[in-house]
Amino acid sequence: MASTKQKHGSKGSHGLSTRQRDRMSTEKFAFPKERKEPLNNASHVRNAIARFDQVKGVSDSERDDAWKRIKKAADKFGVEVSEKSWRELGKK
Question: pTM of this prediction?
Answer without folding.
Answer: 0.79
